[in-house]
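Morning run. Coffee first, then this:
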Amino acid sequence: MLDIGAKLKVMKSSRHVLPISILLLAGIAAYSNTFRVPFVFDGICQIKNNPNLHLIRLSQITWRWLIGFYHMSRPVGRLSFAFNHYFGGLNVFGYHLVNLAIHLCCSICVYFFLYHTFSLSLRVGLVPESDPIALRVRNDPEYHLPDRHLPAIAFGFSLIFAAHPLNTQAVTYIYQRTTALAALFFMAAMLSYIAGRKRGNRKYYYLTGLFALLAFGAKQNTITLPFFIILYEVYFFIRGSIKN
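And here it is:
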């Protein structure tokens, strides 16, 4: 039989099943009509008419072939296009399926990032001292905001991210997979860092480094990731420890 601690852990994990399920269904519904959109713009010259990304046989994968991707811009995204070609040729359905899967995974990362961030905000007391409502929520056990309402709050914001029209280009425009991959690995790196700080396990820091390298290889703007980690550390962990 499970002890009380194990039961509580199972209950906490089960709280996320429903919001994540709805999140996935909403994302699929929003982009279900995009699987036949053809290659356009950069997708034509960078994927369709680029023989370097047309992986046909696994025997083509050599160190020289992989090093060639290293010297390209956004090698992680280009490598994903090569494997897309291996499994489905130039059939756009496979490319759109992967794009949507990446977006859905990123939406889940956004959900858990918001959940943990709001939870940390309340635990360390990072609310304005001049705001009586915020102080009441923090101090009054009747509200139980971290246990009862945080999944719903995180779900609301992540649902907006999953279905918002601003993400249409990153999901529907095949070549813009690089943007979706960058967001996914950026958020995964942040989540790994938070897990490492909360659990005190170095393995999560290694994962943070791995996701950071993948993010850098997906798109150049992820170079801001180290600065975000530093800001997060200062605001939610160092500042929180000082206030406590």
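The chain has one domain: 15-243. Good start to the day.
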